[in-house]
Amino acid sequence: MSKGTVVLAYSGGLDTSCILVWLKEEGYDVITYLANIGQEEDFDAAKKKAESLGAKKVFIEDLRAEFVEEFIWPSVQANAVYEDRYLLGTSVARPCIARRQIQIARQEGAQYVSHGATGKGNDQIRFELTCYALYPEVKIIAPWRIPEFYNRFVGRKDLMEYAEKHGIPVPVTPKAPWSMDANLMHISYESGILENPKSHAPADLYLMTKSPEDAPNSPDVLEIEFKKGVPIKVTHVKEGKSKDTPLDIFSYLNEIGGRHGVGRIDIVENRFIGMKSRGIYETPGGTILYHAHLDIETFTMDREVRRIKQGLGVKFAEMLYNGFWYSPECEFVRHCIDKSQESVEGKVQLSVFKGQVYILGRESPKSLYNEELVSMDVQGDYDPCDASGFIKINAVRSVSLRSKLNCPKKFYFQEGFLSINHI
User: Fold this and answer.
1) Of these residues, 123, 181, 220, 295, which one is catalytic?
2) Top-confidence residue, 287 or 396
3) pLDDT-derived band of residue 389, with 50, 70 and 90 as boundaries?
């Protein structure tokens, strides 16, 4: 008698194929679900494989458009970067994938969901927090945290033997000595030979970007148009080619960035569960958008609003990394960030060349830049005497602070100017 129905987040790989058969052994009816979020995958082959292994139903879901519009775009608006370097390509995909998994579970009346995330990583938390937020009654089967499972499958050799015994097709090509996760936003590489943080990444590791050394010897110049903080059009200035739908825009930026080796990083980061890990990432399109959005935002946003928004962006990145996309606090922060983007509108021209993104210029109907006011050659309506009061007020505040810190500086005020002397 069946223990119930479980919706398994399925990749078609060795691990989740073994989990599928193991769940059936344990007495569950298994529905497999595979999300297309831009990874290179033979989805038809994966479907046939799942059916041959006894899946009750197989769902192949194309989530690419909603992944860009509902998850990548808010991250662009936030300038979301975790620990100053990581653009969160894996983190931002998980709430998108898990949301559809829960929708299928509810639709099919499944009492359980399952995933193949390791017990040492962040993804188990990201998947499960999303599942509990959207379907509080659901029960989660996480095989890599169940002793009966992980003691049985200590290494890849055990999985291979189990696969051969149960007729699970095994890979015919050697497995790369690292793990990889790919989607439209990025590819990540970790574990295996990369666990030694001193080891250099092999040259053949990168799949999404060329080496900057092998990139074209002439730049690609792009114009990216933003409205409310999200890109609405990208144009290749020389070729005249343009894209104006979210999925097409992001795919095209990946193509250009990949051609020039943009967006490669090799970092050690702090996992939410309390350990440091080494990750290598390729994020070509996301890196181009990060630089372009940062530029147009600074050009159009009030200074004090942006100061607050920067703090919210850091907080948003932490919540996204830790799996709290569907928490009330993350929803609140996203709302505030979205509000801050109302005037972030205009065009940025940039050059993409041999691993770098160079800003060339910008324009906006909502610019807060006043060329006449800032000009050193034109007086305009600006009275230099107006600066005196501002300087004195801030200097007095600084003097008060410095006296408390015993800082060795003195301020001398004279009419119309301020001088600072070291003691």
Assistant:
1) 123
2) 287
3) low
Interior angle at CA 68, CA 65 and CA 72, nearest 5: 165
Examine the residue annotation and report whether 123 is marked as an active-site residue of this protein: yes
In the residue annotation, 266 being an active-site residue is answered as no
Number of Cβ atoms within 10 Å of the Cβ of 45: 11
pTM to 2 decimal places: 0.90
- The domain 180-363: what is its CATH number? 3.90.1260.10
Pinpoint the residues of the chain covered by CATH 3.90.1260.10: 180-363
Per residue in 180-207, pLDDT (tens digit) is 999 999 999 999 999 999 999 999 999 9
Domain with CATH 3.40.50.620 in the chain: 5-63+84-175
Closest CA relative to residue 154, chosen from 144, 166, 168, 163: 144
Q: Above 50 in pLDDT, residue 107?
A: yes
Q: 5-63+84-175 maps to which CATH number?
A: 3.40.50.620
Q: Which residue has the tokens 């409310």?
A: 228
Contacts of 270 (CB under 8 A, 6+ apart): 83, 276
Options 179, 242, 367, 398, the catalytic residue: 179
What mean pLDDT is predicted for residues 355-363?
A: 98
- Does the annotation count 85 as an active-site position? no
